[in-house]
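Lab meeting, item 3. Inverse folding demo.
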């Protein structure tokens, strides 16, 4: 059977930047094993599969797969899928609603001059702050020293708005740049908290990288060992929510411009907004631009061994 797909670069305004995503448009009838095989074949950090919604009030059911497994929610897959569907629509929608395992994900379509240029999602879950990790253990995961980890605002902590990440603040841009994943430390420190992903950032942004508020990186298990993600919307949203939560302001909106992927040659720009009212977070958003890259069909065997 033939299935149509489109690939896009997400959280960028130019080709070969941001985070690549494959969107399989007509996924109805595919088994979970077939979806996983297709995602592994693309070998992107995520591949999405668009299916009819279970509730006709929504626009689509979207399933998200890494090269290893299905996940309940992710950032750049939602932004990229919304961009693809809105770009193909006879009448450009202002908002799309995606049914996902983490819940309903509203995605606002970004339009400039009548052209779809990107999207902004609203996180499907409230901020959850769970396990903490020592500065020494977090640093070891990144091949850094404990002195490279800042703990004045928050200790290394797992945060989630739909998908959990260990969030770590790094003291300097130089330390962020020289970080390398250490598999033994990942296994030792993160297995204790049931996580396998580290998102780390710094406020030390040099003048040449302004007007960014933060620079960030993210290490995670890939198809063959630990690898780096060039733009991680779900982690960015979780980090922004964490920073808003510890901000003393009780009302208003925290906006952050966050760079990622710079040190791996795929610069990305992620724009976040976190709204607070009465000291409580009411909504978390992350968005950015997209660029269409490829379009075609993929041949899927009738049976795939799972």
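The presenter then showed the designed sequence:
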């Amino acid at each position: 059977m033939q299935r149509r797909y489109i690939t896009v670069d997400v959280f960028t305004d130019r080709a070969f930047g941001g985070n690549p995503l494959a969107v399989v448009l007509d996924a109805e009838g595919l088994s979970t094993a077939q979806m996983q095989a297709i995602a592994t074949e693309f070998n992107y950090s995520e591949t999405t599969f668009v299916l009819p919604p279970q509730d006709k009030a929504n626009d689509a059911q979207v399933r998200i797969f890494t090269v290893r497994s299905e996940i309940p929610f992710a950032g750049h897959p939602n932004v990229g899928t919304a961009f693809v569907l809105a770009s193909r629509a006879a009448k450009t929608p202002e908002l799309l609603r995606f049914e996902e395992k983490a819940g309903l994900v509203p995605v606002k379509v970004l339009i400039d001059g009548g052209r779809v240029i990107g999207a902004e999602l609203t996180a499907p879950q409230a901020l959850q702050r769970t396990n903490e990790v020592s500065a020494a253990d977090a640093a070891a995961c990144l091949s850094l020293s404990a002195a490279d980890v800042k703990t004045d605002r928050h200790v290394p902590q797992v945060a989630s708005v739909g998908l959990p990440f260990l969030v770590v603040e790094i003291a300097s841009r130089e330390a962020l740049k020289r970080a390398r994943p250490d598999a033994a430390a990942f296994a030792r420190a993160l297995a204790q908290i049931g996580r396998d992903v580290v998102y780390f950032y710094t406020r030390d942004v040099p003048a040449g990288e302004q007007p960014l508020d933060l620079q960030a990186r993210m290490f995670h298990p890939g198809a063959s060992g630990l690898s780096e993600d060039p733009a991680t919307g779900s982690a960015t949203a979780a980090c922004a929510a964490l920073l808003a939560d510890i901000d003393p302001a009780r009302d208003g909106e925290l906006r952050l411009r966050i760079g990622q992927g710079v040190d791996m040659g795929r610069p990305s720009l992620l724009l976040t907004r976190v709204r607070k009212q009465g000291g409580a977070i009411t909504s978390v958003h992350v968005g950015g631009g997209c660029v269409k890259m490829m379009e075609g069909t993929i041949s899927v065997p009738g049976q795939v061994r799972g």
